[in-house]
Specification:
InterPro entries: I/U_nuclsd_hydro_CS (IPR015910), Inosine/uridine_hydrolase_dom (IPR001910), IUN_hydrolase (IPR052775), Ribo_hydro-like (IPR036452). By secondary structure, the chain is α/β, with parallel strands linked by helices. It is about 40% helix and about 20% strand. The protein has 14 helices and twelve strands. Strand 2, helix 2 (about 40-55) and strand 3 form a beta-alpha-beta unit.
């Protein structure tokens, strides 16, 4: 039986490939949009175009929160391009978003697919936190949440904070402590195991399909940013890694069950707090992915581009 998922997205570059992977390997019930990477309306346009381009016009797009809970954040066009799609001047999509709000769609689908629905949360967690605040019983109905977020110490937005947790740390704190079954992929894991090298990019170019061309165009700025600012000759794909290991759990080579929380204050805002020594006994709430199979991840990604 095909697993049923929602993908929660602040759609830009790697998010679009995560959408592609989710559409290939799961029954994708919807894409919900949340404030994050770039201008919100641009994120919506990116998601609509992506689904149209990959031939999945049937997948609904639900509009969610246009700001974090406290509204303090900045977009990161320098990572994804001014339009979030590597400056690709793609055509205006004809697909339209749904009228139902993303929070209501998440709650409704959790009831329709009680105990089956999984959420691929590759963005700030605002929509999911708001869904929980509106209907706390949702944590009993959702089968699993796969989260890309948090950093142990190598923040990619501040010296200590990863972008998704930094954008809306209040939402992250709410979701992490709401009782969901959570597997979390932190930034350092993605940085090590979600990497595509120059040779991988050459391989994608040689695939020479509409989808491989899509990959290259949307990730152009991401590759430039990764190479210039993150010491990677290639690109880092945390969202695609998260969707891939959700699909194939054998990609997870090592993980650890810990209590995880989020700092909300001052310069440490968005920092992930991990209780490595189980000081808060009986409070384990997250499986943290520590090591992953980079080759298996790439095999899954490359297969989706044919």
């Amino acid at each position: 039986m095909t697993r049923k998922v929602i993908l929660d997205s602040d759609t830009a570059s790697d998010d679009t490939i995560a959408i592609l992977l989710a559409s290939k390997y799961f029954e994708l019930l919807g894409v919900t949009i949340v404030a994050g990477n770039v201008d919100y309306n641009q994120e919506v346009k990116n998601a609509l175009f992506t689904l149209e381009y990959i031939g999945r016009q049937d997948v609904p797009v639900f509009l969610g929160s246009q700001r974090p809970i406290l509204g303090k954040w900045r977009t990161v066009e320098e990572v994804h391009g001014s339009n979030g799609m590597g400056e690709w001047n793609y055509p205006q999509p004809t697909k339209q978003p749904e009228k139902e709000h993303a929070v209501d769609a998440i709650i409704r689908l959790s009831k329709e697919y009680y105990g089956e629905l999984e959420i691929l949360a590759i963005s700030p967690l605002t929509n999911i936190a708001l869904a929980y605040l509106k209907d706390p019983n949702i944590s009993k109905r959702i089968k699993k949440i796969w989260i890309m977020g948090g950093a142990f110490s190598r923040g990619n937005t501040t010296p200590i904070a990863e972008f998704n947790f930094w954008v809306d740390p209040e939402a992250a704190k709410i979701v992490l402590n709401a009782g969901f079954d959570i597997t979390l992929v932190p930034w350092e894991t993605a940085e090590l195991y979600g990497v595509l090298s120059e040779e991988d990019w050459n391989h994608i170019s040689r695939i020479n399909t509409r989808l491989s061309d899509f990959f290259i165009k949307v990730n152009k700025t991401l590759k430039e940013y990764s190479s210039k600012n993150q010491g990677v000759m290639g690109s880092i794909h945390p969202d695609s890694l998260t969707v891939s290991l959700a699909y194939d759990n054998s990609i997870i080579l090592e993980s650890s069950m810990k209590h995880v929380d989020v700092e909300l204050c001052s310069d440490s805002r968005g920092a992930m707090l991990v209780d490595w020594y189980n000081l808060q006994r009986n409070m384990v709430n997250v499986e943290i992915v520590l090591k992953a199979d980079n080759k298996r991840f790439k095999d899954i990604l490359f297969s989706a581009l044919y």
